[in-house]
Amino acid sequence: MGGNISAVIGVFSLVSVLAGALFAVGRLRGRRGIATPGQRATYEVLHTAGLAAEPLRAGLNPAGAAKAARHLRTLIGSEGLALADTDDLLALDGRGAHHREQLRAAARRVITSERSTVLGEAELTCNRIDCPVRGAVVAPLGGASGRIAGALVAVTGGAPAPGLVQATLETAHWAGSQVALAELDSSRERLARAEVRALRAQISPHFIYNALTAIGSFVRTDPERARELILEFAEFTRYSFRAHGEFTTLAEELRSIDRYLTIERARFGDRLQVRLQIAPEVLPVTLPFLCLQPLVENAVRHGLSRKPGTGMVSIEAQDAGAECHITVEDDGVGMDPATLTAGIAELAGSTGDPGDDPGQHVGLSNVDERLRSVFGDRFGLVVETGVGSGTKVSMRVPKFHPGVRAGS
Amino acid sequence: MGNDLVVPAIVAVTLITVAIGFYGLRLARTTSDFLVASRVVSPTWNAAAIGGEYLSAASFLGVAGLILKYGVDVLWYPVGFAAGYLALLLFVAAPLRRSGAFTLPDFCELRLGSRRLRTLATIFVIFIGWLYLVPQLQGAGLTLATLTGSPYPIGALVVGAVVTANVALGGMRAVTFVQAFQYWLKLTALALPAIFLALQWQADGRPAVTPPDGATFRTATTVVVEQRAVLTLGDGQTLEVRPGDELSFAEGEPVPEVSGVANGATDWLLPSDAGSDDRGLFATYSLILATFLGTMGLPHVLVRFYTNPDGAAARRTTLVVLALVGVFYLLPTIYGVLGRIYTPQLLVTGQTDAVVVLLPEAALGAGTTGRLLAALVAAGAFAAFLSTSSGLLTSVAGVISTDVLGRGSVRGFRLATVIAGVVPMVLALNVSGMDVSQVVGLAFAVAASSFCPLLVLGIWWRGLTDAGAAAGILVGGGAAVTSVLVTVLGPALTGWPASLIAQPAAWTVPLAFTVMVAVSLATRRRAPTDVGRTMLRLHAPDALRS
């Protein structure tokens, strides 16, 4: 067995030596690019700043502040560094923990006065003989739209030198802009959510009116059918008005579309033909809430409302490797591509009332924007249309995208 | 081997597969009834599809060949191939489905949030996919060569080209019903002849599988040697044979002993003697680890779980797969055992992987029954190899087109398919001498030492970091890959190094786990901040989510 063990040890050490060599080569290569001291200083400052930016971009919170404070202290080169928001000291890295209360009070003052301040030994009294804290620089962090979001405190071991004060002010300015960016991010998300809400509110009035009229026509002649339709309508509105969740599954979305089409068929009768081709493999695919239904509503409106005779709406969902391809097609009147493009451009430029035919452009461009913002620019809507030749809208949905999941 | 029914059977299977792939969806799904259209794939259907894609040429041909050759020791192959789903069921199936990940690289990105780790996982997915594709093409080439007499390279190339073209043109885009059909076809193609074979064996007076004085030829046989070997003839003489040599044996003459093959009754029937040599035992444990833990790392298996609507369905699917695959693996054993009686000449030629396709005619004679059953088995073998390689090629091409080429267009996917198809075809031409099942075993070993630790620790341990995962995959998986490359390309080894390299899982899997845990502990600061949320997503029951 001795031979076996030595063989195993031999293989193991060989593997670890190889790994070590690879690691060393990697490190050396990384170093070689930085030649002059100036370049190296630039690299190190920007690298540290980058490390600090990541937690700051998540907004001012205790966990992020603790991570950021460590890197910011390296950046300024002070004994200790603290970050405060408008309520409390969030994190303190390095020396000065026993001065916490004094620093907190100073940060408060700075946030209210919006002006930076330098604390000397007199303001930082304590009864410890070996206290390393001799001074501090407190600077405000400017948030979005000029509001003060917090304060940065640099603790020093001597009277704060002018260089340190300047470095602290500049760092605070930079950190403030990162926090402002975080606020922008969250406000953009709020805006996206508001858009979904707007879409929900917007698609409904026409449809509710038409649906109720259609159901009303059955109440006397076919009460049983009217009852079923009302139940379908109730389920449909429950899904469309649901308050939670930015995402849903294709199966859920299709179920809602089924209810919608049932009601529309009550209204149009045999004039509305529907053809479906759904690969069962893609039913669990997660996609933005209400991103298919507006397309089907559009298709019904264009495929039928403005033309005589029957109209066909076909919905296809195909499995394509790591993606799912969905198309919604109608054989209706179509439209001039130029009109469509112009309409969307006009919509993007205007802030008020979106013109005479609000439904078609708003629906399409809203879905397009949401798909792009969720999955990236490669995943926008593709519209193929022409006057008199119907409209075909297709989208691609990746089966997996980080941050996208049903029910969240 | 003038069975004129074989080629039509193979062509029919190929055409049916391609036709269902192209038109089946259209026929089955064109309806205005939404409830039918939006019905999710049931666990039973999905399980049959997973079985259809999983039961490869290695299972269909290779397992029987190994049993014919080595006897009871290699029964761990079918046991392990089936039992891998137990590990999948217990540790991975439901949490992975709840995570929403489609491929293994997706899981890396979701759990650890690292693009670089995703790239590393991509490389391993491609390697495992190719390693698994090679024996499929090899099996196809071998089957065609045995049945029609065409040269081996032509068979492998033609079939590889057919599969690549079919996938590239969109014929096999994960069509659940095609794959489910393939499972039942494969089961029938083995089960039906097996019943006839068992009856024939009864009618022949139940000849002993391991007669005390060694196996004998039942009919006069001429053997064309295809591999260099040393034969020990019945009278004790040794004879060295080269490829191309022809040997003739009379009826009742004992089968010569071939070097490296379990020939004697006790050798074949009993586990290799553990007392004198630990190597057999080591290889067995290695094989058990590789197959039990490797299944969860196979790219084409995991992709199928996405079709389940939720975690509970994923678990139920795995349970059904376990049953379906378990039933299937009973059959190759029967073929291997009966092969000892009816086709002993394969031990001399070395083409033991052909036992399944040759046995029906050898046992039942060249009458209509024998020929029909032989054609059925050949069709089943083709189904095995078509479904598995299409599934593998689809997932490898998918990973290449999204992660390597970086574009999701149809053209990108086609280009990726061609790339993904050509490499294993070239490799398949160079490894014709290896046992199909052994190459598959190596693919399992690589999967077990790279993705198994990643999945198990990623799902069940909050402390895993991206650095730890990358180090574990690099060291454990890298060691396994090195072993594979040495086995396939390197010089022949003897003694312990040979065992360590031929069946690496027993040391690479623990190595991967150790490195992953150790490096994760050392880089604790890098643990993702949203680990709590991810864990909740993986483990909270589906009903709680909405």
Strand content of chain A: 15-25%
What distance lies between the first and last C-alpha atoms of chain A, to the nearest angstrom? 57 Å
> What is the level 1 CATH name of the largest domain in chain A?
Alpha Beta
CATH topology of chain B: Sodium/glucose cotransporter
The largest β sheet of chain B comes out as: 3 strands, antiparallel
Rg of chain A, nearest Å: 31 Å
Instruction: Sketch the major β-sheet of chain A.
Output: 5 strands, antiparallel
**First-last Cα distance of chain B:** 61 Å
Question: Any idea what the CATH architecture of chain B is?
Answer: Up-down Bundle
Indicate the percent of residues in helices of chain B. over 70%
Short description:
The complex is a heterodimer of chains A (408) and B (546). Chain A has 408 residues and is of the alpha+beta class.
How is this structure best described in words?
The complex is a heterodimer of chains A (408) and B (546). Chain A has 408 residues and is α+β, with helices and mostly antiparallel strands. Chain A folds into 2 domains: 149 residues, 2-Layer Sandwich (Beta-Lactamase); 177 residues, Histidine kinase-like ATPase, C-terminal domain (Heat Shock Protein 90), CATH 3.30.565.10. Chain A is 54% helix and 18% strand. In chain A, α7 packs parallel to α8. About 3% of the residues of chain A have low confidence. With 546 residues, chain B is mainly α. Chain B has a single domain, classed as Up-down Bundle (Sodium/glucose cotransporter). In chain B, 71% of the residues lie in helices and 3% in strands. A 3-stranded antiparallel β-sheet of chain B has the order 3-2-5, with no helix packed on it. Chain B has a two-stranded antiparallel sheet with strand order 1-4. In chain B, β2 and β3 form a beta hairpin. The longest helix of chain B has 37 residues. The radius of gyration of chain B is 24 Å and the shape is globular.
